[in-house]
Amino acid sequence: MLRALTSALRLPRPWRPLQTRSCASDGAAGDPEIQVRALAGPDQGITEILMNRPSARNALGNVLVSELLEALARLREDQQVRVLLFRSGVKGVFCAGADLKEREQMSEAEVGIFVQRLRGLMNEIAAFPAPTIAAMDGFALGGGLELALACDLRVAAASSAVMGLIETTRGLLPGAGVALAKELIFTGRRLSGAQAQALGLVNHTVPQNEEGNAAYHRARVLAQEILPQAPIAVRLGKVAIDRGMDVDIASGMAIEGICYAQNIPTQDRLEGMAAFREKRPPRFVGK
Hints:
The longest helix has 19 residues, at about 110-125. By secondary structure, the protein is α/β, with parallel strands linked by helices. The protein has eleven helices and ten strands. The radius of gyration is 20 Å and the shape is globular. A six-stranded mixed sheet has the order 1-2-3-5-7-10, sandwiched between helices. It starts with a helix and ends in a 9-residue tail after the last helix. The protein has helices spanning about 1-10, 60-75, 100-105, 110-125, 145-150, 180-185, 195-200, 215-225, 230-245, 250-265, 265-280; strands at about 35-40, 45-50, 85-90, 95, 130-135, 140, 155, 160-165, 190, 205. Helices cover about 40% and strands about 15% of the residues.
């Protein structure tokens, strides 16, 4: 049992940093459906995935899902990514859910394949090694809310964010395996950002600004709070929480112990101890 857990929880080996590309974020038509940007300066370590499909309100079609999966596969190999932030380049919407116009043209077999890919996308987001944050400044419906729920943390605009698992209102089911209260699934009810925070669906809400990106700015502040922490300890903490939630207490404690054991030989742990002793801020390097 412990040997299997140890094998499953091994940290990935160091890879060369991914060269992400800088991009504009105005959501103009004709732009790529997603854009990846590694931030610099005080935000170094934060990488953004910007969904930019204005013609379909960022609906999850084949191309958008494929591009998200490809970006995640590349980014998970980049040890320089300390926080991954999902945002929208389309004002007033985070993600409107599945592309029903596209799905209407699919055969039953094609729908089944696409739903499996969509489920795989949510699993890849949930399993991403670094902390993930969804910045919801507008509508996050159906698969769009499931995408946000697959992230570790969520920030929403109190008034302009509207979220709900509305699949049953379209004769569908939530297809990506995200657990939520049965009431929301059965009724397809839509919630404001403030209501979602009251139910614990989001971590923070903020008043919307004139630019319509208040949740994004709050999400960046949240990401900046994560940046100074020891990267390996943060990643192992995420593993311990995610893996420990679905097992009994004894197995959960074993997982925690394995994660702690992996952190002991790191340079960052020794740096943290030295910084405490010397009464100075630690300088973590992710090793």
